[in-house]
Design brief:
The protein has 306 residues and is mainly α. The chain is built from 14 helices and no strands. α5 runs antiparallel to α8, α8 runs antiparallel to α11 and α13 runs antiparallel to α14.
Length: 306
């Protein structure tokens, strides 16, 4: 019997043996709850959404197949291209400024103070729900009663309808989200700074390198893995901006803040055109894939300078 068991065991394909190890089985057991959640709430809806994008489905009748008609209409839809331009403008305003401020704040935390209280205060805006942040700034920026415009008038300047004019609306949305996410991003970068060996800076100081030179030639290169993570996740989150727009401007004025997620919401739950809304969602998904892989390729995500 033992010989039979040994023969049966040895007859297993080589590719199957690593999957049958005890450690692998235990790992899959721990992953199972998350895997079930991913399949139920992400994978299955994604597949259904892809199938729905080839139909004219809405909330009142069953979907009818239309082939590639939705995708053909998408390429000719001015509303889609406008939402893409608005979203890109938001991303280009939000990401560079947020990242630069976060780097400065992280360096100051490392050089000036490492107080837990300071970290908590910096993180506080990020802990607030997006809806609360939107309502707070909607009140602060009110053209008549908002504290910001009251302050401008008190020093002799005219009040500015930050969220009410096309020239400032999307920049204001970006500023609100920079304020909310800056502290979280700064803490991630601060954690990355803590992993850089002190001996590297000591060697730089012995060679006579200035603080600025060590920052640009030591700190920034060695922070690349953290910066890649920060930039990729921040860009993905920025392309999916919705809450702040929904609370403050609802896509206005004159579509100046109608980002892609708001357009998807409008087509799905205002016009009830679920087929076309999922088509826009698929387009956004493909854009995020391309942008994310481009970032990782440009920043050499598979390499490390340590």
């Amino acid at each position: 019997m033992s010989n039979i068991a040994i023969d049966a065991k040895s007859s297993r394909p080589n590719w199957l043996k690593p999957w049958l190890k005890t450690e692998t089985m235990v790992a899959w057991l721990f992953l199972l709850p998350s895997l079930i959640g991913f399949i139920a709430f992400y994978a299955v809806p994604a597949v259904r959404g892809l199938m729905l994008s080839f139909t004219d489905g809405n909330l009142f009748r069953g979907p009818q197949g239309v082939g590639l008609e939705n995708y053909q209409n998408l390429l000719q839809d001015d509303a889609f291209w406008n939402s893409l331009r608005v979203t890109m403008a938001y991303v280009l305003l939000n990401i560079p400024i947020q990242t630069l401020i976060a780097i400065v704040v992280a360096v100051m935390m490392d050089r000036v103070t490492k107080s837990t209280l300071v970290r908590g205060i910096i993180l506080l805006p990020w802990l607030m729900p997006n809806v609360i942040v939107g309502l707070l700034w909607l009140w602060l920026l009110d053209p008549t009663l908002g504290l910001v415009n009251v302050g401008l008038e008190s020093i002799g300047l005219d009040s500015i309808p930050f969220l009410g004019q096309t020239s400032t609306a999307i920049a204001t949305i970006a500023g609100i989200n920079i304020w909310r996410h800056m502290g979280y991003t700064a803490l991630l970068i601060f954690a990355g700074i803590q992993t850089i060996p002190a001996s590297v800076y000591e060697a730089g100081a012995i060679d006579g390198a200035s603080e600025s030179r060590m920052f640009f030639q030591i700190t920034i290169p060695l922070l690349r893995p953290v910066l890649i993570f920060v930039l990729v996740t921040s860009v993905i989150g920025s392309f999916q901006i919705f809450d702040t727009v929904a609370i403050t401007t609802q896509g206005g004025p004159i579509d100046a803040t109608k980002v892609m997620n708001w357009l998807i919401y409008e087509r799905a739950f205002v016009r009830f055109d679920l087929g076309y809304a999922t088509t826009i969602s698929i387009a956004l998904f493909l854009i995020l894939i391309v942008v994310s892989f481009a970032q990782m390729w440009i920043m050499r995500a598979d390499e490390s300078d340590l």
